[in-house]
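Field: sequence (string)
Field: structure_tokens (string)

Example rows 1 and 2, in order.
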Amino acid sequence: MIKLSLFVAIVTLTTAQAAPAEWIAYIGTYTRGASKGIYAYRFQPSNGKLTEIGLVAETSNPSFLAAHSNGRFLYAANENPMGMVSAFAIESATGRLKLLNAVSTKGADPCHLELDRTGKWLFAANYTSGSVAVFPVRADGSLGDASDFVQHSGSSVNRERQEGPHAHQAVVTADNRFVMVSDLGAERIFVYRFDAAKGSLTPNTPAFAKLADGSGPRHLAFRPDGRFSYALSELSETVTTFQYDSKGGVFQELQTLSTLPTGVAGAKSAAEVAVHPNGKFLYASNRGHDSIAIYAIDKSKGTLTSQGFVPTQGKTPRNFAIGPAGTFLFAANQDSNNIVVFRIDQKTGGLTPAGSVLSVPAPVSIVFVPTR
């Protein structure tokens, strides 16, 4: 029998040897100004080299992107009052996108997409109307009509932002059994059991995890081992640590910390949260303060310890993404029209500017697809 430590080493070595040398970074934007749609750069994780491809697809407000695991298809949430999801085929030679079809999300302003672990289903969260739709992914990458649709209800104490439900993100668990939907307006992380044969959602028991009044849960990230999850709340600018029971789909709250330095005043608007692939660090972005908060994750307890804050060198970091191999972090500064690249210290989680600043109009989200 191979010892676990040796097995992990073998898997790690094999993965490293098989890792693609080049990826394409696709960037979703808001097209209310100079942007025309989705932009792209070629990226080499080994040295951080970036080569501009440019505009790869014209489409309206492709604010959030999701890439299929087979590297052949890309999906964009068209964040408009009449919400749509556009499906694209990726041209392997050029990286450009070919529109396959577009389907209605059955709601207003879809702001997040995620594919299930089989790549056969896609979830769309409609922010303004507070709903979630499920779509079958056909063999050619196009999308079929919605297989299921869930309308949320509820409100909370912030009458300007929480007057009704606002679904902000749908996250599929690693075992593909549950879908977690963060709803900023309803103040809940809804938990649904997912039937991967039918593409349907059923409320779990319990049906949700409740956040503190006025928090405004926005995004959720799991540690790679699935034992803990981290909920970022936009309105309170906090991150809440949960212990996660994968068998029952149940959250147990452990800790809540601010994503801002002590004493910072002004409008609060946290945006994105992500766990480093090594499971040791967590990052969260602060709009207004225009920074990335860095935390160390306790290996056994899952709780967080602040490691400081790094300016994103731009305005309004709506999104950031950790690149392939976990060596670089890309901070998308929406209102300064740039993406600043940081090198990640693998021992401390610290961020240092890598020297690359990408000029992209109103960048919102970034996904990486290996070249073929």
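Row 2 begins here:
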Amino acid sequence: MPTRDAFGTAPDGTPVERFTFSNARGIEISVITFGGIIVSLRTPDRHGVMDDIVLGHDDVDGYLRSAQYFGAIVGRYANRIAGGRFTLDGVEYRLAQNNGRNHLHGGERGFDKVVWSAEPFAHNAARGVALRYQSADGEEGYPGALAVLVTYALTDNNHLVIDYKATTTRPTPVNLSQHTYWNLAGSHDSDVLAHELTINASQFTPVDAELVPTGAIATVEATPFDFRAPHAIGERIDDAYDQLRIAGGYDHNYVLDRSDDGLGYAATAFEPETGRIVDVYTTEPGVQLYTGNFLGDHIRGKGGRACRYRGGFCLETQHFPDSPNQPHFPSSVLRPGHEYRSSTVFTFGVRD
């Protein structure tokens, strides 16, 4: 069974617990109930040396001070909603404008800033923790009481399976994701520009000056956004290309190439020095590539070390940003009597 221990307290005095679980091959994950945050994930390199490959903090206070969403569950709506508003069934709803004039990752107190109830488990060669949160009707401006269940399960074949489920009492947009920053080098004092990335997408959604999708769906062909074959993250990140200039790097949603809504291949990240590799599979239609463009020495991470500029990257599986205001994007609306379901699998390994 996973172990559990104390990890401080939330601002309202609620105790925060940490759950740590490992598999037969030695991979070890720690998750806290504050924000459902993955605080550490230790995997071997090609020589068997274990190291932590995710960015974060040593205590709850670090996560409270940080605006980076390190390792957290983000929702009720991951990513941006333009103008902090949307209209559903003829009714306009107004949300927190916590990212300029826009709404980001669920608002001022999104799912990354609440304490989830938790229950560890061990069965069928998997160990993990089930996290639950009840989001009240009207919380952060969203309609409907939303009952959420997120499960982290680590298997003996090196799969981290993240399952999301939710039900609602009123129609509401739902888009849950996981905001871990990866650095497969493990040292956390290097950037991620040498990581080789593959993304199974021939299209992406361009953004405006506020990083909100314009509504267009553009081809990656002949652009720095084409990762259908492996490229180092830093190979083209500073190219004189308008979308890179706007975001200061990559911070864009990719439209995954898929034929159905089952679990399908999304991306691969490979770190040449250590040989660590992560494959990503998801049921979601999109994945956000973010290259740590807002990280820097002003942010202190684990061990008090400065977080390097572009020192981590995110692959956030998701519905498209601003879908509530873009009717031609896949719908993110959940209605009473239906269940929101989403799955993402991270598979860890090494390569020569």
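free_text_note (row 2): The chain has a mean pLDDT of 96.
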